[in-house]
Amino acid sequence: MDAPHIVIVGGGMAGLGLAYALVQRQADVAQPWRITVVDAQPRWGGVVRTVMEDGFVVEGGPDSVLAFKPAAVRLWRALGLDEAIMGTDPRYKGAFVFARGRLHRLPEGLTLMVPSQLGPLFRTSLLSWKGKLRAALDLVPRRVAPPDGDISVADFIAGHLGHEVMAYIVEPLFAGIYAGDARRLSVAATYPQLLELERRYGSLLWGLFAARRARARRDGANPQRTRSAFVTLRRGLTQGVEALVAALKRANVRLVTSAPVTRVHPTAQGWRVETERGTMRANAVVLALPAWKAARLVEGFDPALADALYTIPYASTATVSLAYRATDIAHPMPGYGFVVPRVEGRPLVAGTWTTRKFPHRSPEGTVLIRLFLGRAGNDRIVHADEAEIAALARQELADIMGVRAEPLRTWVFRWPRVLPQYEVGHAERVRAIQQRARGHPGLYLLSNAWDGVGIPDRLAAAERLATELTRS
Ligand SMILES: Cc1cc2nc3c(=O)[nH]c(=O)nc-3n(C[C@H](O)[C@H](O)[C@H](O)COP(=O)(O)OP(=O)(O)OC[C@H]3O[C@@H](n4cnc5c(N)ncnc54)[C@H](O)[C@@H]3O)c2cc1C
């Protein structure tokens, strides 16, 4: 009997990670899968996109992963990339916030993006005295989240720590991850740990003090723990994609590029997967895609499932990397970068001083800076042409860091509708999608529209699905 065939649509981190996790589990199952991964683009990795030019290592999409979520580092180690894994440069810790015309250092001791130490909170130049005293009022326990409903990040944080902490600390840090609008993002879907702190302590500050003490005890017991919050690969995250693809080829996984899937359809025997380069038959099909792209493929046989998938909004963003002669940058860049609060009304969301964060990414005597432009509700710029995006990036850099020199090189990457927005009521929307999808045996959805947007989240979700697929 032929081995059952599984087609994974989408060769981003989730789809490739799933193929790899299935290969790892093949030895333990009676009937191993025959695996095909198909992608619309001529290259693998989805939004992971490293460009290496003239000694610069430029990340168009993600540039690192959170070290405390182990799935990415675990995968890189399994792929033999130990030597390539690297942390951030410890000499330039910390980040800044651009507010009221200048950069302010973010107060130290943020946990879950929220201040967890009173000293740095009281010393910061970012908040007014009124704002600081309002934050301290959180020491008096209170309940802000409705007992059985959802609440926005903005309302929840402002209810506990006041509007200033919300607008100048928490909102810009959240925007740095989701390019989202904190007034719409759901606490339950983005940081359920904060709700748990409220439930247990009635106060985020008391809860975070306790969490800090517990962490200090853990770190004390394990001095080998890596200190770097973010890790990456020496030749950029594409190095991980290349190693993954090589391992899949060795395992005889069929890899098909430049073949956009136009629709999938259930048949009496399983599934038909139609691509612009031909049709495949499969026993199971996994859509490792953003929710709205998966929606397009299922519309033909289940319009209600497609409608449910379309309810998850996606934000757009653009990244611009600029290379300069070091002598052209007077600014000391004393950290990893900065964020720009929404209340500042600027198109810039965040900037990374790449040269400080990962020094090997720019040749001696040069500086590499990366800017994020466009956010939920204000993403017009992402659809402009590259020259306009680059010009706006340079204008922002002039205003914020006083950089007026001509860059040596400029790289622009546009990412329309890539970042899912976990808005208030997200859990309900996801439940509706999953309930509907369960009606189609052999169809699996593996999307960053739920269970996390970060690369480690995507890989962990892929591992869970591989376990499910090799159990049945
Ligand atoms: C600018 C940016 C910065 C980020 N920074 C970080 C970071 O620093 N750290 C971090 O952990 N995460 C970061 N993220 C988030 C993270 O990179 C993504 O959530 C994750 O990589 C998504 O992986 P995926 O496989 O789910 O989707 P994708 O990467 O979107 O992959 C989907 C794939 O499906 C293919 N596809 C689409 N339609 C079809 C079709 N019809 N037929 C066939 N193939 C199709 C696409 O070509 C693509 O290859 C960032 C994201 C962006 C956009």
Describe the structure.
There is one protein chain. The protein is α+β, with helices and mostly antiparallel strands. The chain has 16 helices and 22 strands. It folds into three domains: 5-47 and 238-312 and 423-471, FAD/NAD(P)-binding domain (3-Layer(bba) Sandwich), CATH 3.50.50.60; 109-221, protoporphyrinogen ix oxidase, domain 3 (Orthogonal Bundle), CATH 1.10.3110; 314-420, Protoporphyrinogen oxidase, mitochondrial, domain 2 (Polyamine Oxidase, Chain A, domain 2, Alpha-Beta Complex), CATH 3.90.660.20. The protein has helices at 13-25, 71-78, 118-123, 129-136, 153-161, 163-178, 187-190, 192-201, 204-221, 238-250, 291-298, 303-310, 354-357, 386-401, 426-437, 455-471; strands spanning 5-9, 34-38, 50-53, 56-59, 65-66, 85-87, 95-99, 102-105, 110-111, 114-115, 230-233, 254-256, 261-266, 271-275, 278-282, 284-287, 314-325, 337-339, 348-352, 366-373, 409-420, 443-445. The strands form six sheets. It has a seven-stranded mixed beta sheet with strand order 8-7-18-19-20-17-21. The protein has a five-stranded parallel beta sheet with strand order 12-2-1-16-22, covered by helices on one side. Helix 1 runs parallel beside helix 10 (238-250). The structure holds flavin-adenine dinucleotide (FAD). Flavin-adenine dinucleotide (FAD) is lined by residues 9-15, 38-41, 46-48, 61-65, 260-261, 288-290, 293, 317, 319, 415, 418-419, 448, 453-455, 458.
